[in-house]
Structures are given as structure tokens and as C-alpha cells.
Amino acid sequence: MQDVFERFLTTELTTIDALGQPITWPVTPYYERAAPCIDVTTGPGNPKKADDASANPLVSLLFSDPTGSGLSSAPMVLIQGSAHVDDKDLAANRKRYARESVEKLPRAAKRRPPQFVQQLLKWRYARIYIHIAPERVYVWPGGDAAAEPRLYDAHMEEVRSGHSEEPRRFHATPAGGASTWDRRVGELGTRFSTAVLSLVSPDGFPFAVRLPVRVDEAQRWIRIEGAPTGIPFQSGLACLTAHSHSADFRHQRGLQVRGDLVPIDEGWALIPHELVGGTEKPTSRLAVLRTNAADARRVARTARREFARRT
Known about the structure:
This protein is an alpha+beta fold. The protein contains 8 helices and 13 strands.
């Protein structure tokens, strides 16, 4: 498992917002062997991950995509734990991130400007670290979500049954209403054969797992496939995140669908209510600018404001 934490280029971070909506984004993990925490980062231009983790420290990290790790037959590993947001010294965080990211993603790091430029644009290159201390670990050998996961936890039997004896925390019920459809939803099950489903467990922790999915356009929902076991399914708000990256991390694509998880035909489906079209990062710099120009302007405005507030 420590090989997974050290060598995976991405992990899927799930936080829970004030409405009880689990939200999952791919991020890069930073881990030193035998360290008490697994760390991820975000920038002032995208502070929601950090803000949600500050308000509700129950988070999860799913290691489900071994692309670029060099590991064969890697397990899928889910960490549920408590988050601590570190934004006290953004300058120190920036220097740490500059060092670690070069070690982890050398090809991607080459595209960054020189250090003096980063120093001039402090608001752009500042980093917020999120430290996650594991409290429970699920392991699917070979990444097979249809198999019963191995559990490492002090309350193993409670988790296995899906009925924790600890006090139940707030759980958002389905929002209801008609499906909100978008043509890009059709990429699920085609362009992306699998997606990460995240939901909120009865004990309040987010639970995430990578599963095959299939779009049912007639019913305007997304079916969860693969006969998964050991997952604490319950009706409520959920999120489907699909993403991919090249082995050198120069190319990234993804999308995210939020909606209601509901039982259907002895299975489960997500009724979409919101689609977030994630950042597209083609290999061409010109293509990157064309694809993400509007989003880049929004991120820049937010980064300046958040950098000033946090410093």
C-alpha cells in the first residue's frame, strides 16, 4: 500500500460540502514512507477543496488509477481519514511544492516558468496543503471492485455491515426533481469506461470506488455496473468523476457529474443534476489556452482574492 501512496500520480480526493454533497477531484498525492499523513495540495484559485475540508474534516482518498506509477496489478486503495488544512505559510508551501512536484512529475514541472517569475506571481503559484491522517483503509486486490475489500480499521464489522454503532451524522437525502441532461454525460461508459462514484457513508465519511458505468439516455440516468460488494450504498447525494492522464502527466481530461444516487432494478443509478466539465489539458500549449481561457480568468481572480485573504 505504501508503494501505491508513493508512486501513484493521482488520487481522488473527496470532500463533503455544507449541503452534504460529496465532491471528488483528482489530485496528486505526496507521501514519504512511514509518514503519518498523505498530503495533497490545491491553489488559492481553487480553494473549495480546502474550504470544505476545513468545515468538515471527514474526507477520503481513492487510489484507483495506476497510470504512470510503474506498478503492475496494483490494488485499489481507499483511505478514509481526517483532514488538516495548512495555509498558514503560503510561501513555505510554494517552495515545498516546487521541490516535491519536480520529483513527482518531472515532465510536467518543466513547463513551469523560472523561480523569479513564480516569486513575482505569488498569488498564482502559492499552494494550500491538505494533510490527511488515515483512520480506515479499504483494499481491493488487483483493483477489482466486484471483490470483497480487505478492511483495516478499529470498527471493521460495523463498516462491513454498513451500520456504524457510532452516532449517525447528517446525511443529505436525494434532491429530487428531473434529470439535468448534457451531451457530455454520454462520455461516461464510452470515452471513460469507468468512473469514481463517491457517496456519504452512514458514519459520515465519504466513500469512493472506481466502477464501470453505463449511460441510459432513455431514462436519463447513469447506471452503476460491475456488481460491487462491500459498499455502503444508500440513497442520497452522490458524485461521479471520470478522468484520465498520460503516463508523463502532460495530458489530462475529465468531467464530473453530481446528482441523486437512487436504487433501480435491484441496482443503483445516478440521476444527474449538475455537470462540471473539469479542466482539459491537451499536449499543445495553444490548445490549453483555447480550451481553458475563460476558466483561467476566473481562477486568476479567485487566486488574487484568496491569496490576499490568507496572507
